[in-house]
């Protein structure tokens, strides 16, 4: 590794997905008999460090691991990279620390791609460069909660120009604003929803007139976690010219395939801001030449088709996440405007309501969808998909159908 992992282990003592209620429905994650109310079955921060070290070592240099930033509490944020191709795929997980299946799927993929001698894998890695940010909000992950750990006072220390602003920002959780979320206490340990801290202007610096903002306005890059992702993105742009694909791995509540009583396994989406060429998206007109909604839809179809190929199983219960969104403060919204094809994965359940019995299935669902995207980008088949087929993916319902 470019930075010694052992220096991090000694420090260990130190989601957008929308939070929705979880409803019981059949033999599915979230039902009472499968609830454990802990994340002991998932990879914690110390284990992540060791697993990445092992993957890098066993890959004999194929997988490169480095530290690319630090969380607000000083934990290192890791990047793992594999492949030498010109098309760049950037994947992040655990921007919300209680949404953990994505990290497991990334580790499985890195292990496979780093050690496989398959000619198909080798050919694929000659076409794409896969860059992953597993567990990119490690402070939240260690607390098994949505938000990071950061006070508004710390923000003012870092950005004194905000002293006179009408703060805190709207996405700050503290004693006077959503002090308890998903059962977690933010009154004693305030923090931010990091996935609302992005801005399409990758060089933006916080301005007091932009605070407190709202969900339909850009964010500020005030959290070190969002700054790290932005810096990785910009570095890849400098190296390759653009980041072709950005995938964000999240969780959601327990929903249903529209018109049925079938619980959703995973939702996908490629729409996070209105098209800059439309009337609704005219405020983003400066990004009209870079925004590529059709490519985002093709990437989502690559994931959907891969999951459908698993046969008659819970992998069939794949839906479209809510459409018609305007969320420029999310990583997906900001990077879509900057020209990346974007894919949102929303797995059912947070760790507060998801037991371990179905963990393997949900991780496999994420892994399968990611493989579909990577393979489709590598062999060019994603470019042949009809983007209009995206509209045929079943919609999500908040209540079971009749």
TrEMBL record:
MF-aspect GO terms: metallocarboxypeptidase activity; zinc ion binding
Superkingdom to which the source organism belongs: Bacteria
Cofactor requirement: Zn(2+)
A GO cellular component entry from the record: extracellular space
GO biological process: proteolysis
Signal peptide: 1-24
Name of protein: Peptidase M14 domain-containing protein
Originating organism: Halobacillus halophilus (strain ATCC 35676 / DSM 2266 / JCM 20832 / KCTC 3685 / LMG 17431 / NBRC 102448 / NCIMB 2269)
């Amino acid at each position: 590794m470019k930075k010694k992992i052992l220096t991090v282990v000694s420090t260990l003592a130190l989601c957008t997905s929308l939070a929705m209620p979880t409803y019981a429905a059949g033999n599915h994650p979230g039902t009472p008999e499968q609830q454990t109310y802990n994340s002991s079955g998932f990879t914690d921060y110390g284990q992540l460090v060791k697993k990445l070290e092992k993957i890098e070592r066993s890959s004999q240099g194929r997988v490169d691991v480095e530290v690319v930033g630090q969380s607000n509490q000083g934990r290192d944020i890791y990047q793992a990279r594999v492949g030498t191709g010109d098309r760049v795929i950037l994947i992040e997980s655990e921007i919300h620390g209680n949404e953990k299946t994505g990290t497991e799927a990334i580790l499985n993929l890195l292990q496979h791609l780093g050690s496989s001698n398959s000619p198909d894998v080798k050919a694929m890695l000659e076409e794409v460069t896969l860059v992953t940010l597993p567990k990119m909000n490690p402070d939240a992950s260690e607390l098994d909660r949505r938000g990071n750990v950061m006070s508004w006072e710390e923000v003012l220390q870092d950005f004194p120009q905000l002293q006179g602003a009408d703060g805190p920002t709207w996405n700050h959780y503290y004693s006077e604003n959503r002090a308890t979320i998903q059962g977690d206490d933010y009154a004693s340990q305030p923090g931010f929803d990091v996935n609302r801290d992005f801005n399409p202007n990758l060089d933006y610096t916080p301005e007091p007139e932009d605070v407190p903002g709202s969900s339909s306005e850009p964010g500020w890059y005030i959290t070190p976690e969002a700054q790290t992702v932005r810096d990785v993105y910009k570095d890849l742009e400098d190296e390759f010219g653009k980041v072709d694909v950005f995938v964000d791995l999240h969780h959601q509540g327990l929903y249903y395939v529209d018109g049925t009583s079938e619980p959703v396994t995973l939702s996908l989406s490629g729409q996070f801001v209105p098209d800059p060429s439309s009337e609704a998206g005219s405020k983003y007109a400066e990004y009209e030449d870079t925004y590529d909604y059709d490519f985002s839809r093709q990437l989502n179809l690559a994931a959907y088709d891969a999951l459908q190929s698993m046969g008659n199983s819970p992998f069939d219960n794949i839906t479209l996440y809510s459409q018609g969104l305007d969320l420029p403060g999310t990583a997906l919204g900001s990077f879509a405007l900057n020209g990346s094809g974007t894919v949102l994965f929303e797995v059912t359940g947070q760790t507060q309501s998801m037991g371990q019995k179905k963990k393997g299935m949900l991780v496999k669902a994420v892994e399968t969808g990611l493989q579909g995207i990577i393979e489709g980008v590598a062999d060019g088949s994603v470019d042949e998909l009809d983007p209009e087929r995206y509209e045929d993916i079943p919609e999500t319902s908040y209540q079971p159908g009749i």
